[in-house]
Amino acid sequence: EDHPEGDAEHNHHDLPIDLGFNSSTDSHAGHDHGTSPVESLPSPFGNQNPFESKTPAKTPADPIVDQIVKKIPGLFDEELQQIVYETIAKTKPEDRPELVKELSTGMPGLIRQVVDQWKNGKPAVPAVTPSASTDWKQYRAQLLRDISGVYTEHLDAQRAIMEEVVYSLHGVPDQVTVKVLEDWNADLRGIKPDPDPTTDIRAALDRRVYNQLNAARVSISSLPADLQNRMQNIR
To answer: Average pLDDT of the chain?
Structure first.
């Protein structure tokens, strides 16, 4: 999924790791996440801000859909609210409860993945069985918690890190996502055997993705355009 750029910004400058964003114009006074014993760890995200958007917010026309949207947690900006609104509006009424359940993670990154999957209505064939999907999502969530917990003990900062990772991994096949997170977690915690000995704690997230895509024999050309560009830069 493409993440267009524009006025809306999602600030992460208070995180205990440097995400590589320009913080000269930020104002976040009075909100201190404290320090972390590993705050010198390099940023795995590079210099891209995936939270910017140029999609203008629109006034909802359907009060029923509007009420549904208001009950979904994690919709912190108008642009994301509008995307969710449009997705629900295009979904058949009988399929909306299932969609709302999938949207109710409270994490904007996961919400964007769901609306992308449902942008043309309910997915005709799920990529995995419901039980396997649940197990995979739980395992991914645990890996994300383990990784973010190395960078900071503060829950709100951990949540922001997890959301950014989800954004950065959007478009990566599920099985590759798991391998990427397993390798990152192993490097941070010294877990053996190391899934990818060519990476260490200084490795950028895109480098891990590139390596695991190659290991899984996934063609770069099969990925979304923005992800293709990022992977081509790794070469």
So the answer is: 76
Query: Tens of pLDDT along 173-196?
Result: 988 999 999 999 999 888 889 999
211 and 189 co-located in one domain: yes
Rounded Cα–Cα distance for residues 88 and 90 (Å): 5
Is there a single domain that holds both residue 116 and residue 219?
Answer: no
28 near 71, Cβ under 8 Å? no
Whether residues 2 and 116 fall in one domain: yes
Q: Do 102 and 8 fall into the same domain?
A: yes
pLDDT level of residue 41 (50, 70, 90 thresholds): low
Name every residue whose Cβ is closer than 8 Å to that of residue 186 and which is 6 or more positions away in sequence.
192, 194, 195
Confidence (pTM): 0.51
106: pLDDT strictly greater than 80: no
Say if residue 65 is in the same domain as residue 176.
no
Last residue of a domain, one of 104, 127, 150: 127
CA distance 196 to 182: 9
- How many angstroms separate the Cα of 45 from the Cα of each of 63, 82, 95, 97, 166? 39, 26, 36, 34, 11
Bridge partners, 53 (sequence order) = 8
Q: Within 10 A of 133 (CB to CB), how many other CB atoms are there? A: 14
